[in-house]
Amino acid sequence: MNTLETVNDCRHFRKEMGSEALVLVPTMGALHKAHLSLIELAKKQGGKVVVSIFVNPLQFGPSEDYYRYPRPLEADLEKCRKAGVDAVFVPSAELIYPEGQDALTLVIPPAQLTEKLCGITRPHFFTGVATVVLKLFNLIQPDIAVFGEKDAQQLAVIQKMVQDLNLPTKIVAHSTVREESGLAISSRNNYLKTDQEKEAALTPSKILKRIHEKIANASKGQKNLKEPVFRDAVSEVLSELNGTSASFMLEYLEAVSKETFEPVNFLDKNTRVLIAGKAGSVRLIDNMCLN
Length: 291
Hints:
Layout: E1 2-4, H1 7-17, E2 22-27, H2 33-44, E3 48-53, H3 73-83, E4 87-89, H4 93-96, H5 111-114, H6 118-121, H7 125-140, E5 144-148, H8 152-164, E6 170-174, H9 195-200, H10 203-219, E7 225-226, H11 228-241, E8 248-257, E9 266-267, E10 271-279, E11 282-289
Parallel strand pairs: 1-4, 2-3, 2-5, 3-4, 5-6
Antiparallel strand pairs: 7-9, 8-10, 10-11
């Protein structure tokens, strides 16, 4: 397995591959089984697989967890070796942002994708993500890049950037990977310390599951279910869970088009339901498609 650290390393690796396809799995490290699933999907695309490991300071706000974000690099490299990764790109912040973040040309995604949902409380986030992903694409020059659907709004921003900027990289999405409990796997789950926090962390997946069940029941024998059915399901589910998940603080729970992220008038297979909130001090996100 090659370890790439510089621009020249990336260029040399790309040149050695010739016409062989290159598949990128961008990560911030602290690799877990969801990342390993992304790697497995990347390997199925054919060609060589590169995993990037970079904790991107540009997507963290001043009060967020950049400095305490886990960085177990040696363990990550070993996981990549065992997974059959061909190369790992581990750039420094100085390589990605050689003149610092304040003197940087930024990629600013369209407001209709970013000024809602996670963009309300994290207005810096999607510019940081889009900018670093474009830089990774330019450095590594992948033919394909694999992203998880758990970060659905981020995925939509990246797909829009690729489309609008005519980037020659195909985006492949992987469905959300979950624990047996239903909890969507995330590096930040490691921050859940108390039993109360761990129990509260199950609330998003419980809410999504119950909403899906209620909408499925409402749709029997009916077509073109209107959006108020979703609102009724939300009201019922939150009422059912009232008191059982008191330590989960809901931030948002919305139904949108999975392509445009605009509000929907009807509920169908193109509808994505997204949820965010805090279990104690740990912010969690999750989502599902109605199908």
